[in-house]
Each structure stands twice: as structure tokens, then as C-alpha cells.
């Protein structure tokens, strides 16, 4: 299949942009069904506005789950960065590292 450059109209700004034969080949190879709807400038602007990092200078804050629990090995109170699954052991940092080191040498 041979592709030729096409002139398309941007749905945001209304300007014409070229959908090159190379871009068409890429879209075909990736099995994309739709042609691009925005020029590169509008696409960049849209992607920038959707990114949480672009709206502020600080890194995005993620909701980290911290759960207080008891270590299954030593019984010490500890905090883990996940919600434990029932029936599975939970270890404090020291016991976890000891188990990891023992597994690596075995």
C-alpha cells in the first residue's frame, strides 16, 4: 500500500496541517483506525494541559496507603506501604530484608 501526503484540518484551531505518508505508514503499522484530528501545536498544548505536572511546579502527590500492622515473624508493630491481603504474612522492614537475603543465598 502506497501512502501520499494529505492535508487535514485541525479541529481546535482550524488550520490545515499535513498528514505525511510516513505518519500514515506509522498509523497503518500500529493499526490506528482514525486520522489525527489536531495539528502538532494543538496536540502538544492539549497534552500539556492534561498532564498534572504541568499545572504546578511541585511533583504530583499520590495517595500512598500506609497501614499499621504487626509483623508476622517478630510481632513488632510496623507500618507497611500497602493494604495487607488477608491470610498472607506481613513483615517489618528488618524481617523482610532478612527473608530476602536468605532467599538470595538459597
Protein model, in words:
This protein is α+β, with helices and mostly antiparallel strands and 106 residues long. The chain folds into two domains: 6-50, no CATH class; 67-105, no CATH class. The protein has three helices and four strands; from the N terminus they run E-E-H-H-E-E-H. The strands form two sheets. The protein has a two-stranded antiparallel ribbon with strand order 1-2. Strands 3-4 form a two-stranded antiparallel ribbon. Strand 3 (67-70) and strand 4 form a beta hairpin. The chain is elongated. The N and C termini lie far apart (56 Å). The model has no long low-confidence stretch (mean pLDDT 86).
Q: What's the alpha carbon Rg, rounded to whole Å?
A: 26 Å
- Quote the distance from N terminus to C terminus: 56 Å
Shape: elongated
Beta strands, count: 4
Q: Report on the biggest sheet.
A: 2 strands, antiparallel
The secondary structure category is alpha+beta
Amino acid at each position: 500500500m502506497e501512502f501520499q501526503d494529505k492535508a487535514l484540518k485541525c479541529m481546535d484551531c482550524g488550520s490545515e496541517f499535513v498528514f505525511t505518508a510516513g505518519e500514515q505508514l506509522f498509523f497503518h503499522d500500529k493499526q490506528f483506525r482514525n486520522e489525527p484530528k489536531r495539528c502538532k501545536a494543538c496536540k502538544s498544548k492539549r497534552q500539556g494541559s492534561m498532564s498534572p505536572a504541568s499545572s504546578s511546579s511541585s511533583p504530583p502527590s499520590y495517595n500512598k496507603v500506609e497501614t499499621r500492622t504487626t509483623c508476622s515473624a517478630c510481632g513488632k508493630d510496623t507500618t507497611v506501604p500497602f493494604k495487607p491481603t488477608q491470610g498472607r504474612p506481613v513483615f517489618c522492614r528488618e524481617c523482610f530484608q532478612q527473608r530476602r537475603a536468605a532467599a538470595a543465598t538459597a
